[in-house]
Structures
1.
Amino acid sequence: MNLTLKVWRQKKADSRGRFIEYQARNVIPNMSFLEMLDVVNEELMGRGEEPIAFDSDCREGICGTCSLVINGIPHGGRRGTATCQLHLRHFKDGDTITIQPWRARAFPVVKDLVVNRSAFDRIIQAGGFVSVSTGGAPDGNALPIPKEAAELSMDAAACIGCGACVAACKNASAMLFVAAKVSHLALLPQGKVEKERRVLNMVKAMDAEGFGNCTVTGSCEAACPKEISLDFIARMNREYGLALLKK
Amino acid sequence: MNLDARIPSGPLDKKWDRHRLEMKLVNPANKRKFDIIVVGSGLAGASAAASLAELGYRVQCFCFQDSPRRAHSIAAQGGINAAKNYQNDGDSIYRLFYDTIKGGDFRAREANVYRLAQVSVNIIDQCVAQGVPFAREYGGFLANRSFGGAQVSRTFYARGQTGQQLLLGAYQALCRQISLGAVEMYPRTEMLDVVLVDGHAKGIIVRDLISGEISSHAADAVVLATGGYGNVFYLSTNARGCNVTAIYRAYKKGAAFANPCYTQIHPTCIPVSGEHQSKLTLMSESLRNDGRVWVPKKKGDARPLQSIPEAERDFFLERKYPSYGNLAPRDISSRAAKEVCDEGRGVGPGGLGVYLDFADAIKRLGADTIRERYGNLFDMYQTITGENAYQTPMRIYPAVHYTMGGLWVDYNLMSNIPGLFVLGEANFSDHGANRLGASALMQGLGDGYFILPYTIGHYFASAKTAKPSSSHPEFKKAEEEIKARTNKLLSIRGQRTVTSFHRELGKLLWDKCGMARHEAGLKEALQRIPALRQEYWENVNVTGEGGELNQALEQAGRVADFMEFAELLCLDALMRRESCGGHFRTEFQTPDGEALRNDEHFSFVAAWEYQGPDKPPLLQKEPLTYEEVKMAQRSYQ
């Protein structure tokens, strides 16, 4: 199959970017979307042109490195799928595909399709952990945790920190990302001890990074490659309210 | 070269306790005077960086990913072993130790493995305390599953994302230390060389991947936790960025490289679909708990699989290894799959695949139970192949997955270069010639949380060397060399892309030094690699410039190191005239096709010492002596 790509090219963080058209020739339905870009890049380099810069690493949907807004939708719009897991069998021969980086003030473009997501790390640093040092932990079975709580906590903990939720949101809100971490830890007894501090500090850090507000449109949940539920945002709002009252 | 493993004396089960008592300590107030560089932020690197910072050391942590949370440990699926014996099925520290030694085909160091089994129980406790959401039973207690190479159920897991959850636990501990100012984190920064001053490792040279700037960082010790070298084969289950550069650079600075030929081929991966393939995807081996592996008994059986009756299906693992069945260790299962495919009984395109069939398990347990256990793996399989494995069996084929070899380290996890410590997959120490499932996570975290924090203090208290400034001439010299090499790569402007070279190198290694190796093939590879390397340095085309984000340049540097390292890998495979674990020489096998060790001549760790660019490396041997276990022919029948 042959595809036409309109790809965002931007030399540096402070330079002007624009769309440039490329042809992906003789690609096959079993290829992943990123393998198709590899093919295009090989051809570009063969002509001595600079390849399209994009992030990827594990290429199996778990590291959260790949990004790309494909035809206006982060990760391309297949449910529960990161860009690296998107295959060309979901496109048609002759399609024109637009490819852009994540768009958010808190995720500045580094080059072409690569963005800087270190704001997420700083939010976790503000409180997304249990304050336990190595050594001295009690036996793993000393604290029984209901299976349901562990499972729900795991649903939230499955977040890969890719930032699709931010890219999908018209306000570039990071609520789903932050809610996932707050919920993961607040649902477990280990995380309950410092849950008020955690939610207050993480929300503060989120606001300081310049992420927008949440209007609960649910576009984040729809774009999330791990299908993290919007319910966690409700849970975080409750945790936040309770923490404010306790303060 | 000094290859003293510094194994403490005394009975096996007392060595670590005794060693901890005998090691020198650094007073808490003095710890803040020591700077430690940790390269890598996976399970080993993040756990080490966090634990060292908690103790009071000043830590700088480097990773090439855009966030420390993205290190490749995140992709580990199945689980982590620990000798908790929560299932009351006869597990013990000794049994985990013995299974690991036996699984490694008696090519690992006894004392290290015993210690690993000892700390395994602490790892689970630590991770639970961090909030890792392990799977639980209805009573609220931790659940276990069984894994290849073991007859007890000792594997802890978090769905099919155990590596992710353990890494996030370590990452969060690291983030806490970053927020406290105890760790300085350098993401998107690649280590390109290690710097020695007066024979001690005292710093590294790095490239900022965004600005392209090359800079020096000095410290009192350097810790490499930079993972394995499976990507030398081009196609592997490793992430795209995984590379050998950090440990290969250390090797060129004098660190011994041990057992490079011990590479693991994982039996349950999704088969290759075409030339464009950029990486292979692993399906957790835990699938073999409930899936049955088979191929048609008849060669070239073209019938649709539903119409092949049970009697005409060859469940070859159950047939050949009745007591372990589908849970036979990875090396054995992989070779068995290759064997039936070589006989022409493989399934799927090109005949390079075998079925992993869940029909019986679904009948016995119901689709819901299977979904609960492996749902995300079935989804992953469907995403990639477009097939629904609840209805039709998966097709799997072996792929390069893990490398047991790595830099040589002593009992303290220090290489033969004083002050250079190596953790996790980057070292060679615990898995011998073959790693058992769910043991990589155990080793990475064991090294980082519970071993290095003790042993590094002993080095500081005994070595008493000063920290040089990063403007020391050795740093300047190393920086200049790196800049010259970068400029050279950018100035060739040849006809072929980096990937085309990498793919060719990988194919050559897979054919000649992959699942089965023999003398003639290895000699051929040793002829062809230098030629390919020469062509690389004359004809590679690296676009762009050095002073910017340049992914082609990053890749070019890594492939240049693979081009040299591949030769070392083949040389080691040629030298080891026996079969053991993941290293299978076709000349050395038992009458029924199993690996045939030669304990008389090869019961040693092969540690290679770099001699210079045009000289072959020197082989040094660390003899393996077993005080506790009896070496036996590994049998899983």
Note: The CA atoms of residues 69 and 171 of chain B lie 6 Å apart.
2.
Amino acid sequence: MTRPLLSLANIEKRFGELRAVNGVTLDIHENEFFALLGASGSGKTTLLRMLAGFEIPSSGSILLDGRDISQVPPNHRPVNLMFQSYALFPHMSVAQNIAYGLEMERLPRSEINQRVDEMLSTIQLAHLAERKPHQLSGGQQQRVALGRALVKRPRLLLLDEPLGALDKKLRGEMQLELKHIQNTFGITFIVVTHDQEEALVMADRIAILKDGALLQCGSPRDIYEYPIDRFAADFIGIMNFLPSRVDAGALSAADGSRISAPLPGDLKSGDNVLAAVRPERLRLGAADADNCLSGQIRAMAYHGLDLHLHLDTSLSSQPLMVRLTADAAEGHPFAVGEKVTVGWSAQDTRVFTI
Amino acid sequence: MTNRSSLRLMLLILSATFAFLYIPISVLFALSFNASGLPTAWTGFSTHWYAALITNSDILSAALNTLVVAATSTLSATLLGTLLAIGVEIRRRKGHFLETLIFAPMIIPDIVLAIALLSFFSMLDLRMGLHTIIISHTVFNLAFVCAVVRARLKNFDWSIVEASTDLGATTSVTLRRVIFPVLMPAVASGALLAFTLSIDEFIIAYFTAGPGRDSITLPMQIFSMIRFGVTPEINALAVLVMTLSVVALAISQRLNRGRLPGQ
């Protein structure tokens, strides 16, 4: 296995009594699109600022290409940061903003001009090169910020909530464009986000941070399908939790009905657990499914692509959420108050300790 | 009282207030163009009192001194005040003790500051002259420049400083290429304010000046002239000083009102 591009070993950052980052160990590989995902206060921004050089770890090491950079100041790292607020220089034009980082490297003027022109066409802003940042839309400013960091061809590009300020539609387009640009340039991207959907769509690998520690790290599919615990399951996507008890190799739900599920080996009879199933794994009817239950429709939400049903059941005090594709919902004139039966298979059930 | 009569009363008070403010200045302005120069009768329009100023070598040398003091103290106060403002804003969390210290020269009565500076210079056994006036004017101007620049720094986006560092700039390059250009309107505004304050400052200059004519500034010159009565030349001189101050102040306020580029 080749040496990782970036290797974090036991990184800790304390601010007085507060442990913002608490023993994070992580390898990130060349050309990877990596997402640090966490709620606010999870330590993801502090971790990013340590990678950029704006914070120095209290302990632990940050190896970039095998060299410890944890004490190297930001202006001497082959790492660039795209700021959440974009932090464009308000008194400089788009082209001057992009050229700034290259001028700091004291490159010849001709090379600077050439690289700036290339970057302007990559971010599709060549026609606005002479504009000042305040004359641009939010999406255009975002691309200038990206271009300004990217033009330096860093070993590592850090992006702090890159799409946070954009409206939903534009965010969707930019997610794909970021992925495309990352692919074209072959630069390793680390993006910090609190938006799980953004992480799932863009990243090759995701690390979930909680209270300054690494909770789970894996591919989007791993993270979504096999969350490591109840928190991760709840944080990523939507999950139905059914309180149950382990009973002779199976689960017994709140109302006494049985739930079949693959049980982790360390559970013994009598343990209280949560059975969990994703809304899209529930199917209508499905009398032949491993697990089956009926409930009454409490509310419905039509999303075009799919239909969400909230069912009152005897399994949980929380309504059970069912997500039906447009196809599956076709021909069912659902009504609030109607009783429906849903089923799901044992292998789609996850079991978490409480 | 009806609405109509209350409106009339307000208009009356407003005009009385403005009359109180501007009639003396208007009289001064008019008299400076009065051919006879006497406040008793208007004998026709003339600019010869302005011409007389130019031939008065005492006034000319005092004017030159004032310009030297104003320009030099403005320059040094602007540089130091701006750096101070940036430094204080970066470390703002340290509390208000420093803040009070910075504003003190603005609040302390001029006469107190004048005496303090005079005692200080005497204690140092410093020879008094134009240079001591310059130092003294730098002291209070520094506080004003700092206040103006800090007001602008309150909504300064500090992330551009980090962005500059991130892109490879050293602290001094960041200062020169990012912080100063963005603060420029506030710095210029502070400088013009300082210039205005210095031009018509009398008390501190009077206390810290040296003996002889070498360190007489314009306000001091005017003061010494009116001891023998208000001459028409003084009217003309006062109008010129006032015009310069008003123009500088107007530009200063205009710059300060102008928004930061990009905001």
Note: Chain A is about 25% helix and 35% strand.
